[in-house]
Amino acid sequence: MLWTIYLGILGAFAIGYLIKGGYKTHSAKLDFVISIFTWIGLFGFVTEKEILTPFVWKIVFVGGLAWDLLYGLKKFNEEAEEVPKAARPFVFGTTVLILIGPLYYGLYQYAF
Hints:
This protein is mainly α. It is built from five helices and no strands. The chain crosses the membrane at residues 6-23, 30-46, 52-70, 90-108.
């Protein structure tokens, strides 16, 4: 039940951001495409349906996690001017763990 709610929140956030016009740069558009793949993988995990092969989801897991960490850190540093530089790694790490930690946990379970 909680997985389904989390899946819906992720999907609604991505679609809302798309409708609002948030994906303007090339890197933001790539982020949207990667998010779609990770969402589909989480959907397969939640519904217990086999979508593609585990090898594909291993690639999506590693690539998506690397992308989210690098792109998220870059974007966070651009927008977090009010957060002291010394506290940024802690704030970023906590935010990532809470917001996308479950996504990559589910994707890992689905891939491996």
